[in-house]
């Protein structure tokens, strides 16, 4: 029973497991040798792995995109997958946004950083033609199925997650990859790097879009056109 609990705790999206035992069992005595402890590898399986076909398709979609955007959820942080995600953003020359729970995944001083909950982040997500979302359930403040974020038919969504329950909940998927975020993102980055397709694939972002990054500063004037003046002031120093 406890082996099953520990396996479930590490299966898919890691989390706590509740084990309830009757009081008589808790108060019983016994010989520990009758219940040997097994090493984790003898009863647990590793995280799901992406297929080569999925990684090839994801890399091709991103390489062909005109306005790609990468979005990091908390799963990127848990999987220690920040390096792969930021490599993809750098190779594509596109905005990198952290979700509400994944804000720490994209450093504020990174050249591709765009603050996800201001005018620049809203515009980047609404005008993107390909969205790569990793480790995020895409909640109400991320990329929900809403006309505010643009017509879903005009966007291709690539979602990477370790929990199958999170796929296609708020938006229709073009490609879903059930896998460890680090393995998937590193694999996509390696394919973009090997094909040498990355830097030339998103020529429209710099023209319309470089907060602290080149993207945020150039996106804001477009957002504020006809509206109140926008500011790049971050709330942290206030």
Automatic annotation (TrEMBL):
UniProt-listed Enzyme Commission number(s): 2.2.1.6
Biological pathway: Amino-acid biosynthesis; L-valine biosynthesis; L-valine from pyruvate: step 1/4; Amino-acid biosynthesis; L-isoleucine biosynthesis; L-isoleucine from 2-oxobutanoate: step 1/4
Record domain Thiamine pyrophosphate enzyme central: where: 55-186
Classification via InterPro entries: DHS-like_NAD/FAD-binding_dom, Thiamin_PyroP_enz_cen_dom, TPP_enz
Pfam families xref list: TPP_enzyme_M
SUPFAM superfamilies given in the database record: DHS-like NAD/FAD-binding domain
Nuclease in keyword set: no
Top-rank taxon: Bacteria
UniProt name for this protein: acetolactate synthase
């Amino acid at each position: 029973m406890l082996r099953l609990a520990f396996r479930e705790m590490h299966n898919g999206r890691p989390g706590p497991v509740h084990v309830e035992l009757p009081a008589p069992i808790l108060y019983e005595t016994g010989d520990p040798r009758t219940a040997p402890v097994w090493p984790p590898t003898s009863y647990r399986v590793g995280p799901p792995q992406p297929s080569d076909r999925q990684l090839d398709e994801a890399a091709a979609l991103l390489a062909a995109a005109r306005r790609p955007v990468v979005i990091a959820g908390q799963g990127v942080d848990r999987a220690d997958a920040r390096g792969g995600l930021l490599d993809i953003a750098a190779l594509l020359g596109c905005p990198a946004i952290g979700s509400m729970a994944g804000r720490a995944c994209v450093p504020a001083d990174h050249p591709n950083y765009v603050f996800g909950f201001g005018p620049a982040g809203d515009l980047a997500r609404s005008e993107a033609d390909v969205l790569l979302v990793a480790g995020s359930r895409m909640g109400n403040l991320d990329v929900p199925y809403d006309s505010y974020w643009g017509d879903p038919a005009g966007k291709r969504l690539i979602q990477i997650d370790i929990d199958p329950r999170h796929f296609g909940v708020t938006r229709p998927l073009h490609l879903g990859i059930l896998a460890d975020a680090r393995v998937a993102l590193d694999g996509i980055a390696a394919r973009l790097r090997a094909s040498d397709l990355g830097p030339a694939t998103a020529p429209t972002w710099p023209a319309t879009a470089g907060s602290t990054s080149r993207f945020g500063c150039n996106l804001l004037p477009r957002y504020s056109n006809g509206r109140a003046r926008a500011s790049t002031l971050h709330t942290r120093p206030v």
